[in-house]
Amino acid sequence: MKLFIRATLLAVIIALTASCTSTPDTTKQTANAVKPYQVGDTITQFTLKGIDKKSTISFDDDIKGKSKAIAIIFFTATCSSCKEEISFLSNLANSSGDDLKVYAVKESFSTKLEHLTPSKPLLNNINYIEDKDFTLMVRFGFKYAPSLALADSSGKITFFKSGYSTTDNTEISNEVRKILGK
C-alpha cells in the first residue's frame, strides 16, 4: 500500500512539473540563430501583440525608459509556479510604485486566463504580451516557464532566473532594489 501511495504521489509531482516546463520546439532554429542574451546585454527592439490581440507592445516605444526597473516573465496558463511568481511580481510592483513595470509574456492568449492567479483573473498592474512563436523566449535563452529577466530602464539585463519557488522572493526583491538604487 505504501508503494502505491508513493508511486501515485510521484506521478502527481511529475504531472505538475510537466505543466510548468512546456517549451517551444527550438530544434527548428538554424545555425544563424541569434545568440541568447546574457546578464549585461541590452535588450534590443521587439514588437509583440498585447492581450487584446489588436494593440502592439514595442520595447523601444512602450517599455524602455518608462520605469527604473523592468521585469519580463515568461509563463504558461497551466503553470502553478508561473501564477505564484506573477502574483509576487504584482505585489512587488505595487510596493515599488512606478519604478517597476512587469511584463508577462505568454505564447498565446487563445486559452482563457480566468485562473491565472488564485484570487484574480488578471492583475491590473501586469502588462500581458503574446509571443505566439516563442521568438522572445528563445531570444532570452529560456527553455521553460516560469522564467524571469530583470533589466534597468535602458534595457540592460541585470538578472536571469528560471523556475520559481517562494524562497526566490528575497533574491528577486534584492535584485529589484539594486536596480532601483535602494
Largest sheet: 7 strands, mixed
**CATH topology value:** Glutaredoxin
- Shape summary: globular
| Spatial order of the strands forming the largest sheet | 2-1-5-4-3-6-7
CATH class placement = Alpha Beta
Low-pLDDT residue intervals, each spanning 5 or more residues: 3-19, 21-31, 117-121
Oligomer: single chain
SS-derived structural category = alpha/beta
- CATH H-level name... which superfamily? Glutaredoxin
Number of helices: 5
Which percent range fits the helix content?
25-40%
Q: What is the second-level CATH architecture? A: 3-Layer(aba) Sandwich
Strand percentage lies at 15-25%
The mean pLDDT is 81
SSE succession: HEEHEHEEHEEH
Tally of individual domains: 1
Tell me the number of strands: 7
User: What Rg do the Cα atoms give?
Assistant: 17 Å
Task: Give an account of the 3D structure.
This protein is of the alpha/beta class. It has one domain (40-180): Glutaredoxin. It has helices at 2-20, 59-63, 80-96, 135-139, 169-180; strands at residues 47-50, 56-58, 69-75, 100-106, 126-130, 147-152, 157-162. The protein has a seven-stranded mixed β-sheet with strand order 2-1-5-4-3-6-7. A hairpin with a 5-residue loop joins β1 and β2. Residues 3-19, 21-31 and 117-121 have low confidence and may be disordered.
